[in-house]
Specification:
The protein is α+β, with helices and mostly antiparallel strands. The protein has eleven helices and 20 strands. It has helices spanning 12-23, 36-41, 50-58, 63-68, 88-92, 101-115, 233-244, 294-315, 319-346, 352-367, 369-380; strands at residues 5-8, 28-31, 47-48, 70-72, 74-79, 82-87, 96-98, 119-120, 124-129, 136-140, 146-150, 153-156, 172-187, 197-199, 206-210, 216-222, 256-270, 273-274, 277-279, 285-286. A hairpin with a 5-residue loop joins β10 (136-140) and β11. α1 runs parallel beside α6 (101-115) and α10 (352-367) crosses α11. The model has no long low-confidence stretch (mean pLDDT 95).
Length: 384
């Protein structure tokens, strides 16, 4: 088959790119190795920057978001004996919104179905060809039929393990593996706080988040090789109560429905373009989740790339596509630094000297308007 843009990967990045291109009358075909049900059910990020929320609303994807999303003015920073509120609206005039990635995916899938654009799920043996000449992608569909998609450009939104990045010869990789991980927990219990709590504790970092008014999300700092079987529900609740504990506040508990260990890493691959192949989202970069940047960075990539491809494919103007990699990477490195900074400040590592440095940084952040504004500006999101 023939299309203008072949998109490898049908997660939020690929689906949103296809949606944005479709609004400009540009055809695309989506290829995804997982089933549609698997993609829709993946539990991932839930914090949306102001720019991400604005883009979803502007492109007709904000109906459910406006009803079910939970707008937050800021976050809480905590260490033993102290809890401080950082009000982003007061500091930088922007809020953030809790709305799960699974819900965004559902909205995007519904929009794609309504538009009648083709998508191939359970695609195997996905292979990119001739990306510097006449690009095409071959794959085997769910019925076992070998297929080929010829396109003007190919976009890799296929994550860290997908085939797209491997098609860029001589790509330079920058990576940092952190000496800790997150034990992530989903529980059927109403949130015990109105906004997220980021807690430094001698036992390790803890975080109180939420997915809805009825479902809470929690994280505990653990070792990268932690045996999840060693964490009973009672042990998890005890650790959360200890690390999140604050005078006059109590943690609500409920049935734990999901638990998993999430590794922590920073990863950037350059360049993000090779010939007619472009990378977006986790195919090009991964950040630790502390700064809530992963999904939002993917949205920023896609918003930038959609404009660039529209100018190139509709108007024959290539300035934006030629600048895509450099432009996207400036934001990627800014957000990579912020995510590293948040992670380094809040997770217990090193010796007691390092701990005192972390506490000094936390104290500075909550007492200095300049320091608090820097955190708020980055967390709530740079302009798209």
């Amino acid at each position: 088959m023939r299309t203008q843009v072949a998109i490898v990967g049908a997660g939020p990045a690929g689906l949103l790119l296809s949606h944005l291109l479709g609004l400009e009358g540009i055809d695309s075909v989506l290829l995804e190795r997982q089933t549609a049900d698997y993609v829709q059910a993946r539990i991932r990020a839930g914090m949306l920057e102001a720019g991400t929320v604005g883009l979803l609303r502007e492109t007709g994807l904000g109906a459910r978001l406006d009803v079910e999303g939970m707008e937050h003015r800021g976050i809480h920073l905590q260490w033993p004996g102290e809890r401080h509120d950082l009000d982003f609206v007061d500091l930088v005039g922007r809020s953030v919104t809790i709305y799960g990635q699974t819900e965004i995916t559902k909205d995007l899938m519904a929009a794609r179905e309504k538009a009648g654009r083709p998508a191939y799920y359970s695609a195997s043996d996905v292979t990119l060809h001739d990306v510097t000449g006449k690009p095409h992608v071959t794959f085997v569909d769910v019925e076992g039929t070998a297929r080929r998609v010829d396109a003007d450009v190919v976009v890799g939104c296929d994550g860290f393990h997908g085939p797209s990045r491997a098609s860029i010869p001589g790509a330079e990789v920058w990576e940092r593996a952190y000496p800790f991980a997150w034990l992530g927990v989903l529980a059927d219990v109403a949130p015990s706080a109105a906004e997220l709590i980021y807690a430094w504790h001698p036992d390790g970092f803890a975080m109180h988040s939420m997915r809805s008014p009825r479902v809470s999300r929690f994280y505990l700092q653990v070792a990268p090789d932690e045996d999840i079987a060693a964490w009973s529900d009672d042990r998890i609740w005890d650790a959360l109560a200890t690390r999140l504990g604050h005078p006059g506040w109590s943690l609500g508990t409920g049935p734990i429905t999901e638990k998993s260990v999430l590794p922590m890493r920073s990863f950037v691959a350059t360049p993000m373009r090779h010939g007619h192949l472009y990378l977006a989202g986790d195919a090009a970069h991964i950040v630790p989740p502390t700064g809530a940047k992963g999904l939002n960075l993917a949205v920023a990539d896609v918003a930038l790339l959609a404009k660039a491809l529209t100018a190139s494919l509709k108007d024959g103007t290539d300035e934006l596509v030629d600048a895509y990699s450099d432009t996207a990477l400036r934001r990627v490195w800014r957000c990579t630094h912020f995510s590293w900074w948040m992670t380094s400040m809040l997770h217990r590592h090193g010796d007691d000297f390092d701990a005192r440095l972390q506490l000094a940084q936390l104290q500075r952040t909550v007492t200095s308007v300049a320091a608090a504004t820097e955190l708020a500006d980055n967390y709530s999101g740079l302009p798209l």
